[in-house]
Amino acid sequence: MTPKQTAIHWLSKLADLPLCLGLLFAIVVAGRPAWIGIVHGEAEPWFVLPLILAVILICAFRASAHAEVIAHRLREPFGSLILTLSAVTIEVTLVVGIMLAGKSEDQVARDTMFAVIMMVMNGLIGFALIMGGLRKREQTFNAKSASAFLALITALTLIGLVLPRLTVSRPGGYMSEQMELYVACASLGVYVAFLALQSSSHREFFVQHEADVPADDSAPSVIAPVNSRRAMAESVALLVVALLAVVLLAESLGGLLVNFWSNRHLPNVLEGVVVAFLILLPEGIAAIRAAWRSNLQTTINILHGSALSTIGLTIPAVLFVSLIIDTPVELGLEPAQICLLAGTIVLSMLHLSNGRANLMQGIVHIMFFTMWIALLLD
Fold this sequence. Notes:
The protein is an all-alpha fold. The chain has one domain: NCX, central ion-binding region (A middle domain of Talin 1, Up-down Bundle), CATH 1.20.1420.30. It has twelve helices and two strands; from the N terminus they run αααααβααααααβα. It has a two-stranded antiparallel ribbon. α2 crosses α3. The termini are far apart.
């Protein structure tokens, strides 16, 4: 290795030191839940919630970094798939942790999924298009990928987040147990089928033509050591460590968030926004960085793959957990949310149907994103 590669290699090792400390902290918290005042109902120290949030955020960043290393070696579409699956693992863990707290509102899964969709398909997509448009007037990508993603996102959001609001078997946005079982199996089955096709016969849909790939995109974002097998093994192991730390902290974070929101009389919908922000920040940075390098195809794969995996995996996970712990889950969106969701899907189809994107399209998506923020604060 050159001196520069050696220096970067050892800096990457130091970057994983907080991750190891985070795992140790997660083991301590998981082993002594009474220390943070959840079991006996005592007031937890003020610094515990920010500390757990910081540890989870560090673990999420390192998980994203190591997933990027794995992704670069596996190439598209497997690379983006690793990124999205690691993010959705964190999301499902945090949502289930809040559900298991026992005192949270039963809309946390719905609020988290809707927040992810709004952040991804309006906020991050809009910002990525603006960043790419500032550097290059118009960017190209494989339109077949956006078409495939949007078709499945539309179908799964309709049966999982819209239809429960319109059914009459149970009041509000709830579903009967039979319908919950069908929606869970259908969502999981369709997503698994999509993964099988994405990685085999339809793989070319999610890869940009070689002539359109920027020359500087071939270089990895992290310079890995010469021993590629060793680097791959290290990245896989540290990715598992990061996800394990989040899993151990999830239940404690759920109890702390519920207590924090109830004690301060804050809207429960913000719980889902916090979870969505934690899981999307590392992935969003990777997607925007790809757009800045004029590689919009990777941005589309990461962000739309994240939105699809959020629906396809989170809905079955929370519904199966709700059946096991006998806790109802309200998935049906409110009418104003349904309006924003429908507008987002229509805009995405109009903007991404021809394989070209520009600055103006990003501005329109940002407008919808700010409208969602205004709806939260209303």
